[in-house]
Amino acid sequence: MVKTEEEKEVLVLVEPEDFLKRLFSLTQSFVNAPSASQPDLNQVLPLADLEGSSTKTYSLAVIGLDAYRCNQEHGRQQALSPGKQSPSSQPGPELCMTQEEILEVLVVLQLWGNIEVLFLDTWQEFGQHVSALTKAIAKRPYKRQLQSKELPFCTAGDGTGLWQVWKRQIQQFNRVSPATAAAIAEAYPSPSLLLQAYEECSTEDEKRLLLSDIPVKLDVSSKDRRVGPDLSRRIYLFTVSTDPDLVLDLST
């Protein structure tokens, strides 16, 4: 059985002319709107009214915006040359928007609608972006599965998740077996309890050797052994030292 799930990412391709008209329409809505009111983003993204749109993340792709504005400006200059003036030579108000005004609207789209606008120069760049986006979405379930397997004990439902994390932290020390880490974690189930035990010690030597006599449970056929003074000293120094250059392992 294949489980299907609709993705939350929506990529909308917008023509440069239509994009500028929508931005200009949004700027006009700012004029009469109260200062604290939410802007009407439907003027830029009509899809916002569709069912389920509130759970979507929209991105707008605009291809050739700079080239479009340059061509329109060049055509307007030619139309205004002597002997070629005509009423139709007047540009639309959206073409008169400055770069600062466009950037201001882009900020509004990002902050209020979480809408990202992607400016591309060619259709080839658009195809490359669609390909990369498709690959990222396709790999997402696999990455989620890997992440869930990295630290499965963090979400343990039996209440042992934090204890498992503490045991794994102890195993980060050199030459520490899972059995040794488990023995220390059973004696002191959390770092705070270990710190409390250090505070109750009266001498520095007592603190260094606090963990040394903890028995380590091995196989039935093997003899029991203890944590030992070396590991006890390393854990103590790591726990209380503030020196970032301190060498814990004397054998290195």
Automatic annotation (TrEMBL):
Membrane-crossing residue ranges in chain numbering: none
MF GO annotations: crossover junction DNA endonuclease activity; DNA binding; enzyme-substrate adaptor activity
InterPro entries (UniProt xref): EME1/EME2_C (IPR042530), ERCC4_domain (IPR006166), Mms4/EME1/EME2 (IPR033310)
Any one GO BP annotation for this protein: telomere maintenance
GO cellular component term, pick one: chromosome, telomeric region
ERCC4 domain segment(s): 62-199
Principal localisation: nucleus
SMART domains assigned to the protein according to its UniProt record, in alphabetical order: ERCC4 (SM00891)
Keyword set, alphabetical order: DNA damage, DNA recombination, DNA repair, Nucleus
Keyword Nucleus: yes
Pfam families xref list: EME1-MUS81_C (PF21292)
UniProt subcellular location: Nucleus
PANTHER family xrefs: CROSSOVER JUNCTION ENDONUCLEASE EME2-RELATED, EME1 PROTEIN
Family from the record: Belongs to the EME1/MMS4 family.
Protein name: Essential meiotic structure-specific endonuclease subunit 2
